[in-house]
Automatic annotation (TrEMBL):
Descriptive protein name: GlsB/YeaQ/YmgE family stress response membrane protein
Domain of life: Bacteria
Record's keyword terms, sorted: Membrane, Transmembrane, Transmembrane helix
TM spans (from-to): 30-53, 60-79
Length: 89
């Protein structure tokens, strides 16, 4: 994996983390910095996965894998950490 691939994964992760909060409805219980961190880590894992699968260099397949993993991770993080409400009042 090249340094350009790592920089691309970082940029994709930050963008997906920031945009992921806009896509999901309601007020998220996760801070922006955390969604961006989760997106970045997932995009780096996507880059490593694509590299291990034999995708070399800057390619559409690598970008799709990075973006897909980052989006799924951000959606899971935001969806599962919602604010709990008590039904008893």
């Amino acid at each position: 994996m090249t340094s350009a691939g790592i920089v691309t994964a970082l940029a994709i992760g930050l963008a997906v983390g920031a945009l992921g909060r806009l896509v999901l409805p309601g007020r998220p219980g996760v801070p922006l910095w955390l969604t961006m961190t989760i997106g970045t880590v997932a995009a780096l894992l996507g880059a490593i996965t694509a590299w291990l699968a034999g995708v070399q260099g800057f390619s559409l397949v690598g970008l799709v894998v990075q973006t897909g993993l980052a989006a799924v991770a951000v959606v899971i993080a935001v969806a599962t950490t919602g604010k709990e409400r008590s039904d008893s009042q």
